[in-house]
Amino acid sequence: MEEKLFQAGPARIAPPDRHHATMPNQRLSSRKFLMALLTVVLPVYLILSLLSRTFPTSLHSSMSASMTASNHTLVPLEAHIMSKCPDARDCLRDLVVPAMEQVVNKVNFTLSFIGSVDQNNSIHCMHGPGECLGDMLSLCAIDLYPDDPVIYLGFSNCLISSYGQIPSRDLVEPCALEHGIAFEDLNGCISEEGKGLNLLMASVERSQAAGVRKSCTVRVNNKTWCVRDGGEWKDCPGGSDIKSLVEEVERLYQM
Hints:
By secondary structure, this protein is α+β, with helices and mostly antiparallel strands. It is built from ten helices and seven strands. It has helices at residues 18-21, 30-54, 56-70, 86-103, 129-144, 149-161, 169-178, 183-191, 195-209, 242-253; strands at 75-81, 107-113, 116-117, 123-124, 217-220, 223-229, 232-234. The strands form two sheets. A five-stranded mixed β-sheet has the order 2-1-5-6-7, sandwiched between helices. A two-stranded antiparallel ribbon has the order 3-4. The longest helix is centred in the N-terminal third of the chain and has 25 residues, at 30-54. The two termini are 46 Å apart. The model is unreliable at 1-69 (pLDDT under 50).
């Protein structure tokens, strides 16, 4: 679908009202105008000068605080999922997405996928070829917007919320439109020879290297934080709620 952008017309300036422009009673001599201008500008100048002399330390402190905040190291936060998995749906909806809404600027977020690779270097997904395609759609969104998890996580959450319909175009296209992704770009990524498969292979191998096998597994700072499996939260010593995850991210961010 081709997106049409709204184009505003050229700005128009109304012509001067000649009748009022020539009224003698409304004329202001240049001398009077200058005096009027000085009575307004001079007090403002004096106030600004006083402020600049009085508060340089506080302004410098604010800038230093901003610079210090920007020097924090982003906390690794990763979710390992399968796109047609109900546990992945619950995990994203109930924990990952709401937590990300609060800490998106404090984490280095990664969305990874779980599968297996056989001796012939073929990828297998637990819920069939449709899941592999769903995984690739999310990975293509990540490839298109690598620095914007708001877009690709939102798109992936939209797909997985209706995981039974993956990879139907009737689901994919509205989700892409909702999150500002051109469907043609996603389709191009999937259709490009080897690209989608290569993205999926790299993601699956990443999950394997981390020793992750269950969808959904959430990891913080490269350690398992919580697992959603069989409709239950498991192995969550730090808590499975949003508040606990956010507090852990903020604690690590301040270190």
